[in-house]
Amino acid sequence: MERVCKDSVGMTSVPGSSMDSAEPLNYHAAARQGRQAEYGERWGEGAARYFSIEADFLDEDQSIRLMPVPESFFCPISATIMSDPVATVDGCAYERDYIERWFRERRQAHQSITSPTTGLPLPSTTLMPLLALQRAIEAYLAHRPELRRDHMAGRSFEEAAQVLQTDLLEKQAMNTNMGDEVRRLREANKALVRQLRQSESDRAKLLQQLQQARWQLGIAEEPTFAELPDGALQPSSSDESTAFASAAEAEADLSRLQLQLARTEAQAQASASETRRDGSRKSASRRGPFFLALAAVLAAMAGSVHVAKGRAKAPPGLEPMELEANLSPEATQVQVAEMSLIASDFRPRKFGRGIPELIRCVEQLRSRSLEERHDAVMSLMATAREGKDMRKAILQAGAVLPLVELLRERSPALQEAAAAALGALCADGDQAQATLLRAGAVPALVRLLASDSSVPTRAAASAVRNLAANHNAAQLAIAQAGAITPLIRLLAHSDRGVQAQAASALGNLAGDSSENHFDKQVMISQAGAVEPLVQLLQSGAAEVREAGASALRMLVTNNADNQVAVAHGGAIRPLVKLLRDEAPSVREEAAAALGNLVFFNDETNSGNQAAIAEAGAVPHLAALLLDAKGQVAETAAGALRNLAAQNANNQEAICREALPSLVRLLRDPHSSQTQVEAAGAIHNLAAGNAKTQQLIVEAGALEPLVALLKGEAPRMREIAAGALWALARDNPELQSAIDRSGTIQAELSKHGS
C-alpha cells in the first residue's frame, strides 16, 4: 500500500508556543488568512451567478430563474445575512452579536449553554472567526449590487430578488438577435469538423505505412484495412483512443521498429563476420544496401510521425508534471506485489535484458487470440515484478497503449490482468504516472470501477490508487473523470479486498501531508465518504481497517471542516479502539488519524482535543510509546504532542499517563525522529503550565533534552532548545539548574528571542 508521510502529526509547531518567534507566527497566520480569504472570494463569486436557464438557449419559452441567497449566508438566530460570522465548537455558524447575546441570556438565566440550532449542550463558548465565509458574503453582495442597493432602500433581499427577476425577464427579449451569431458559429464549427476529418484521414495513411513496414519486418501479421468514407484505408482495430493517443502509439511503434532494425543489423554484422572467416563475403555485402534503404524509409516515416504528434495536444490537466515527492522503494515493492494476479500454474516467459523479445510480447497484446493476449499480459506482469529497470523497459517498449485498449475488452479476466499490469507500471513515480495519463488510462479505469465483477473492479481501484499517489495532475484527472462516487460505492462492496483498495484510492486522491489539498478533501467528504469510511474501521479484515483509518487521516489533514465532519460522523471512538488493534500498521494509522483530527495550519481544534481525551485515547497512546513495531511509537508521540497543544487538561492527563515513556524515548539513540517527536510532545506539555513543568523536571527530562542540543540534526537541536525554553523561560532557578556555565543558557536565549 502506498504510504504518505505524516509530517502534519509530528513535525508541525504549536501556535503561540514560546519556542516560535513572532515573525514566523505572523507569517503563517497571514498566509493562512490569505488562503481563507481567497477561497471565500471564489465561493462568493460562484454563488453570485444567480440565475439559471431551464430550457434550450434558443427556446422562446425558456425559463430564467433566480438562484436564492445561499442558506449558509444567513444567521439561524436573526434570519438575516451575516456580516461577522463565527462558528461555535459544534460547527454551526452565527452572527457574532447574536450568538454572544444568546450566551449572555443563558448565563443570566442560570441555564446551561446550548446550541441554538441543535439544542445540545456546548462544551465551550469559544467562537472561531469564519474569514472564508465572511469574504464569501462580501464577494456575493459585491457581485449583486442590486440586492445591497434595494436592501439599503428599505426592501428585503427577497423583494430585491423579485425586482431583479422582473428586470431580467424584460431584457430577455434583447437576446433574440443572437440567433444569427449562433448560426454563424455553427457553420464555423462544421468547417472545423471537416478539417478534423481530413486530419484523421492523413493520420490513417501514416498508420497504414507503419503497419506495412511492421509486416515487412516480420514483427506483425499482414495488415487488413477498412475503407474510410473518403476512400482512404485505415487499419482495422477496436482502438477508441484520441488523436493524441494515436500519435503517441505511432511514436511507440516507430521506436519498436528502430529497436528491431538495430537487432537485425547486429545479426547481419555477426553473419558477415562469420562469412569473412569462411572466405565468403558476397552475401553480407548484399544485405548492406537493403538495411540502408530500410533505415532511410524509417527516417522519413519518423519525420511524418513527429509532425502528427506535434499537431496533437494532450487533454487539459494531463500534462506531465515534475514533483519532488516520489514513492519509496519499499512502497513500490509492496504495490507491485499486491498487483500480481499471476496464477500458480502459469509459467511466464523470462525476458532478462532482451528488449527485442519484450517488444514481441508487447506486439502480442494486439493478437487476435484472446489466450495469446492474456498470456502476453501475464508475462509482462512477471517481468514488471523483476524490478524498476524492467518496468521502465516495458514502458519504453510501448506497452501502455495496448494495455489501455485491453481495459475495453469484454473478458473480465483480461480486463483484470490489464488493470493490474497498469497499476504495477505506474508504481515508480511521476514519469510512469504521466505516461498512463497521456495514454488515456484514467477514463478506462474509471469505467471498470462500476464493473459487475469484483475482480476487475479491485484491480481498477488498485491501479487508480497507485496512479493518484503523490501526483497532483493524476489526482485532478481522476476526480474530473468521476471516480469519487464509484469509489465511495465500492466502500460497501462485499469483497474486503475491493473495500481496502477503494479506501486507499480515496486517501491518495485526498492528497498528501506535504501541502494543503483543501478542495479535493472537501469534494470527497461532501460526496458522502465519511460515513462508509467510519464503518470500515470496524471491519474484520486488518487491511480494511488500516485503509479506512488512513483515508480518514488524509481527509482531515490541515482541514478544519473535515475534522468537524469526521468527528460528527462518529469516527473518534472507533479510532481510539483501533489503538489496541492486533495489527501494528492499524495502530499506527489510528494514532496518526487522531493526531491529525486536532491540528490544522498551526492551529488546534479544541473541541476534538476534548472529545478524543474523553474517549480514553491518552492511556492507549501512552501504551503505544512502548510499541517497538514499525513507527508506532513515533506516531503515538506525535499524536500526544498535538493533543497537548494549548490544552491544560490534556497536558496534565498526558503527564500522568505518558511522561515517563516520553522521557525514555528522549534517550533512545536508535531513532532520531522518535526523539524529535518526544521532545516536541514535552515542549507542548510544558508550554504555559507551571504544574506540568515541575512534573517534567521531576521525571528527569532535563538531562536528555540538554544532550539533544549536541545532536547533529538541526531539527533535533531546534526542538530540544524549544522544549528547554518552554520549561525555563519563566523560572530563573530552573534556568540556573539547566546550565551554570552560561553556554546552554545563551543557546536557549537565542531560540526564545
TrEMBL record:
This is RING-type E3 ubiquitin transferase. Its EC number is 2.3.2.27. ARM repeats lie at residues 398-440, 440-482, 482-517, 528-570, 570-597, 616-654, 657-700, 700-742. Residues 236-247 have a biased composition (Low complexity). PROSITE patterns: ARM_REPEAT (PS50176), U_BOX (PS51698). PANTHER family: U BOX DOMAIN-CONTAINING, U-BOX DOMAIN-CONTAINING PROTEIN 4. It comes from the Eukaryota. InterPro entries: ARM-like, ARM-type_fold, Armadillo, PBS_lyase_HEAT, Ubox_domain, Znf_RING/FYVE/PHD. Pfam families: Arm, U-box. It is an enzyme of class 2 (transferase). Residues 228-247, 265-284 are annotated as: Disordered. Residues 68-147 form the U-box domain. GO terms for molecular function: ubiquitin protein ligase activity. Keywords: Coiled coil. It comes from Effrenium voratum. Residues 182-216 form a coiled coil. GO terms for biological process: protein ubiquitination. It catalyses: S-ubiquitinyl-[E2 ubiquitin-conjugating enzyme]-L-cysteine + [acceptor protein]-L-lysine = [E2 ubiquitin-conjugating enzyme]-L-cysteine + N(6)-ubiquitinyl-[acceptor protein]-L-lysine. Gene3D superfamilies: Leucine-rich Repeat Variant, Zinc/RING finger domain, C3HC4 (zinc finger).
